[in-house]
Amino acid sequence: MKVTKKSKEQLIAELVESEEKYRIQVEIATDAVFLETIEGRILECNTAGAKMFGYTNEEIVGLTIADLVPEEFAKTLPKIITEKDTTHGKFVSRISKKKDGTIFPTEIATKLINIGDKPRLVVYIRDITERKRT
């Protein structure tokens, strides 16, 4: 088995390349992709996600999942999503709400991950309005 030593510069370059690949994949996705705290506060969002909900990227970061659903549904959201609910992933159909108050049907997939020592939710949201029309 051959073991090679990589320089600090090589490791940094590989890390930067890996990060860039991730960013490109998320940014070109046609579905909304969110990175959230375990409580549902949005930390990051791709352009498709901001557009889907009628916000700019700057506006949507910092909102919570409760801001993106009708008020009557927001009241039923649990305060904290437990690890048990999302460790293996969760897939649900829900009504979502745009910035202007328009509601629309969505499919939502969530997965709990750890970034460093912090639990985070990766959330994929697909607008299924066209599918519901047919």
Automatic annotation (TrEMBL):
<dbReference type="InterPro" id="IPR035965">
    <property type="entry name" value="PAS-like_dom_sf"/>
</dbReference>
<dbReference type="InterPro" id="IPR000014">
    <property type="entry name" value="PAS"/>
</dbReference>
<dbReference type="InterPro" id="IPR052155">
    <property type="entry name" value="Biofilm_reg_signaling"/>
</dbReference>
<feature type="domain" description="PAS">
    <location>
        <begin position="18"/>
        <end position="72"/>
    </location>
</feature>
<protein>
    <recommendedName>
        <fullName>PAS domain-containing protein</fullName>
    </recommendedName>
</protein>
<dbReference type="Pfam" id="PF13426">
    <property type="entry name" value="PAS_9"/>
</dbReference>
